Amino acid sequence: MTLLHDVRYRALFYQCLVVALVAVLGWSMFTTASQNLAKQDIATGFGYLSRQAGFVISEAAIDYQPSDTVARALLVGIANTVKVSLLSALFGTFIGLLVGIGRMSRNPLLQRLMLVYVELLRNVPLLLYLLFWYALVINVLPPVRAALEIAPHVYLSNSGLAVPAVSAADGFALPLTAIVIGLMAAVLVHRIALHRRLAHGQPNYGGTIAFAVAVAPLLLVWLVYGVNLSWDNPQPGRFRLSGGLQIRPEFVALLFGLALNVSANVAEIVRAGIQAIGKGQWEASMALGLSRGRTMRLVVLPQALRIMIPPLTNIYLTVFKNSSLAIAIGYPDLVMVSNTIMNQTGQAMETIAVFMAVYLGLSIVISLLMNWSNARIALRER
Q1: Per-residue pLDDT reduced to its tens digit, 327-347
Q2: 88: which of 10, 188, 195, 284 lies 20 to 30 Å off by Cα?
Q3: How far apart are the C-alpha atoms of 241 and 235, rounded to whole Å?
């Protein structure tokens, strides 16, 4: 009982008690639902994941055939969701950074144009923009038989974008492994070189050495094993384009919609972060002879980043969850694949539980990564 008088232990005890109650309640609901389903001769459990999927997925980020298992089909949906969410977050952050800086421009025309951009994208529902971009691709671009060749072997039509693809005879596993090892080693070398440069105050060509270390594993793989690359060019046909890399209109519309929506929100976060930095930082930089652009890049933005990361976490979580709107335009993300599985197997409860767990798990991973980044750049009291 003495421990209960300690505030820390008492708080921990209450938290554990709440978790236990929630677990008991969840287990009770699960067993009740299972018993009711069994009375109606409805199959339960996760055994269906090992069955043959038997349906086609129009776009797969990983290899997939209809003869694969249901679990493999779910994995394809997860990979598609992660792919479009990650690309949307990257492109949206880059565009939003430029727009946010443009909002602080001294040019009144540029400033107002960026304001209109932000307001248009923030105040219209994302679903309407997804439908707009999809309708634009389908109705404005020409059909396959009249596809536009916008560059050599690059075709644009209402069936999407077809570009040349690179293929390797032995696959890309070994080169990709070499690239990852090289990048990790380069980061380590660069950090060591930076630490020594700050300690001794003398240049040590850390960037050049890091670049050499990054390239060395891939060069070694090429010299020892050889990398046989070949180009697969798209070939126009009467009804479809064959060969090359096919980027479907559903993916393009979803990527555009999510990336532009992210960019508008990121732009406001960037603007707020810049405005939060004191005017004295600008004046001190100008007194040292730095131009306005160098002051923004070297002084203001690094300090504003500490303010921007917490709200950016919410933006990245939102874009990941908003990717579920892909079902409205037919992009095979996790939700759409799960709906197909539910219609085929009739096991809705288990399938919904799976993709809820996936969304929860990936959201927690995003939060942990952003919190780690925030902790790394946070000011530390001495």
Answers
A1: 888 888 888 988 888 888 877
A2: 188
A3: 6
